Amino acid sequence: MSRDIEEILARQPSIDFTPTFDDSFVESFRTKGFTMLPRITTDEEVMWLREVYDWLFGDKSRVHFDLVRPYDSDGEDRLPQIIAPEQRLPALKNTAFWRNGRVLAAALMDVELEQLQSWGHMIRKPPKIGEELPWHQDEAYWDPTKIYRALGSWMPLDDATPENGCMSFIPGSHRKDVLSHKHVNDDPNVHGLYTEPDPADIARAEMVPVPAGGVVLHHSRTLHRSGPNTTDRVRRAYSNEWQLAPVEAETAAHRPWMDEHRQAWSEREARRQKV
Ligand code: NI
To answer: Cα of 138 to ligand 1 centre, how many Å?
Structure first.
């Protein structure tokens, strides 16, 4: 590991922070499929996480792909994503964000802490060109042969506002099945997915600004989107998915967009091996 990240890791603050929440926080998750808490960790930890985040995104080789551009295409990243950063930097699991996310997820899902597995991802919306991520359900991206019970805990490292791409949610949509999805621009070489919810549902959507260091948690089937970043400042966000061990489904769900994805991904791998 390079010296710059070792120096950042050596300065990891030791944070002891307990979030407070009441019944309405849990009730909102159960009835609407999402719930927000204005603080899950301290400003000190957020400042340190920004340094780690900027180091990770500082080199293209550490970014997995852009969510809204074809794999390996030329041009500036508009929605770059890093998956499971904790595998590279295990210190990310020794944070108040991770510990408190687990406590909140256990309370919302009504399970024991020890039952929960997690994996993280980071999505960066660059100033001015950070694109929208259209309506989707997270589970649409996942393995159609598995049954999930899961939620995402999404923490912005910069205040997430309507101007820089905070998220919107459709209340109650977590009770739906996984809807039919397509790839952004109808191009299977683009990782991002979208679905087209009922316009009446879209009209009921709630936009949820979240301050840096706050968190919004949503069910894996809750319909959500995030807007473009129209500001001249970056919008950094870090999310952990919390789930029970997925169970093998008796029959795989019909998700043709995942078949298209697998095909495009294997072609990408073949191209990379030739280089
Ligand atoms: Ni999502």
So the answer is: 5
Which residues are paired to 37 by β-bridges? 215
Cα 137 to middle of ligand 1, angstroms: 6
pLDDT tens digits along 23-44: 999 999 999 999 999 999 999 9
Distance between start and end Cα atoms, the chain: 25
Distance from the CA of 81 to the center of ligand 1, in angstroms?
Answer: 12
Find out if CATH 2.60.40.10 is the number for domain 3-274.
no
Provide the token pair at 51: 């340094």
Residues 23 and 10: their CA atoms lie apart, in Å, by 38
Neighbours of 226 (CB within 10 A): 23
Give the global pTM.
0.95
Look up tokens 């990770």; give the residue: 56
Cα–Cα distances in angstroms (integers) from residue 15 to residues 26, 51, 199, 204, in the given order: 25, 16, 44, 38
Q: How many A from CA of 217 to the centre of ligand 1?
A: 11
